[in-house]
Records
---
Amino acid sequence: MIEAIGLDADDTLWENETFFRMTEGEFVALLGDHADGADIASRLLDVERANLARYGFGIKGFMLSMVQTAIELTDGRIDGRAIGRILELGQEMLAHPVDLLPGVPQALEALDGRRLILITKGDGIDQERKIAASGLAERFDAVEILADKSPEAYARVLLRAGVAPDRFLMAGNSMKSDVLPVVELGGHGVFIPHALTWAVEHAPAPDHPRAHRLETIADLPALIRRLEAPA
């Protein structure tokens, strides 16, 4: 019996990475006179990776990483107007409406009555904004906003929920964050890919009976019924 179902938020319930990539495109164009577009994007990704321990996940860290990348790529010659535009890009992302992904309302309706936990990571203020704007908060028994999704972080979530790992299922678009840590703990991890998942979240799929893959969140209720069916 699956006692609790965890659902990721960004790019599982609503669009997120799309806006990062759109903003990255504007950032690359802004610095187009200083470097090749592919080199700018590659440098930005390297800076983002290096800054995760400092800033964590989310738009604000992305904004600061763009500023740092711009300064480094121009040897400090970037002007104040360009820095101002980078800040505007981040502010626009923070104000963007929340667009639910296809199949989400139907899947949540089919899971009505189950114990659902929204488990996301990133900046608390921005995540709370998106959860409120999504209109989905009342569907969840609990909301967990984590700094990162490690096995230890999931273990603390399950301890608070009073749920054993083998009775927990987590579904999301990140193999690294939503599947592997939960499988390691003894739970079920369900990978629901999104076309634009951030490179940092990529990881090889494990060959494990508790690791599952679905093409759409609409298939999640049926998977849970299969897992709970008598052998």
---
Amino acid sequence: MVELKTDTSIDAMYEAGQVVARALTAARQAAAVGVSLLELDEVAHAVLREAGATSPFLGYRPSFAPTPFPAVLCVSVNDAIVHGIPGRYRLRDGDLVSIDFGAELGGWVGDSALSFVVGTPRAADLRLIETAERALAAGIEAAVVGNRIGDIAHAIGTVCRGAGYGIPDGFGGHGIGRRMHEDPGVPNEGRPGRGMRLRHGMVLAIEPMVVAGGTDDFHAAPDGWTLKTNDGSRAAHAEHTVAITDSGPRILTAR
């Protein structure tokens, strides 16, 4: 069931989204050679505490997970696509890092992600990140009243496939509101003109993921959470929480 949010509720979701934006910005600024992933998680946690917000990630346990998620920030490095658990690993020069974060404030949730390179970047990594961001922009551009979910999926998939990248099979965006994951699902590839019609008040987390090696296959790491590319190639992830409105898409987690 899809809940249509009121304009007042969308404004409240914007406040949650801005906590997310601040936490991602702070974590990105703190990421440097020698910094541990646990330290990045603490930076994000401090933003939550300052805002009086809570984490929808911490303690989250979907059906596939062997244990509850133990952190407020997902940190996925190099061949990790999403859901990386922050640990003692210290960032190295040239690491490609994807960070994903959510916040709950006043009963509403925001969710966003970004990718970047620590230290000296490889041209191939910059191209991968740019493609993820471009795919996100294309998906948001298609998120207008009267379009369908398939139009968003097609826009994302066209950018990713056109660049020669893989798209992790079965993973994509989702509805969001009172809970982090709500209906409808938002695939990262699909046929235009298909699926649920977009209406004013729908709020979606749109999140392309791209794999440099061009394949869609992945596996779960021993921790049961981190998804890694099968071929060892690098991955990038970009995400925003977006409200569908009569005046166009509104990015609630804009940084």
---
Amino acid sequence: MKSVMKMSLLAATVAFAVGCQQEDAKVEQTNQAAEKAEAAFANEDDKAAYAIGASLAQYLNANLEQQAEIGLELDKEVVLQGVQDVFKGESKLTDEQAQAALQSLDQRVTKLAQQQAKEKAEAAIADGEKYRSEFAQKEGVKETESGLLYKVDSMGDGEKPSAEDTVVVHYKGTLTDGTQFDSSYDRGEPATFPLNRVIPGWTEGVQLMPVGSKFTFVVPPELAYGDQDTASIPANSTLVFDVELLEIKDDAKKDSASEG
């Protein structure tokens, strides 16, 4: 056992030493690259000029990548050719022609983006209906008149909040495919908010929870964000929330009022 322990310690020491050497090598390479970059410019003006070109390239590349995401592929080499031709004073387009081409591009980008958003919204509606139908069949699931589905994961014994109360909760929000778009757990602290300033599904659902409870809510789009389309939540999405009600902030005020 002792020999095994010694070998383990030796292996750990070697691994640590190798790791340190690799890290030192990376730092050295970074420093060498920085020194090489400094030496590549004759003066500060050249460095600034290069920085302008690099910044322009980053901006153009980001735009081309965004357009590629909606199915519009523009040749980077042709973009570069346009920059070079203008610098040479040999542009193949007049100012009017270039403006017309950009306006046409903007219209195409808008049309493609709208079509993509429409397709995502239609898919979200179908996925949401299927998910809600399956969730509703699970044991213990209840549905309110508004269409909100919920399941009691654990029931607390505290007070229930009203719509005018401010509550403290831990929660996780996902799409029906399990993609997480928000989580107070990941942020490391609970969220505090007035119940009348959140989506209708939350306003209604959290009022069903005694303090100390954990519920799962399945919120149809009309009780969530409806046809609003965001980067993380497509339009018409059904949302799934795991919610833990920790505290009602207004409880102290109620107690004071009752004592008075």
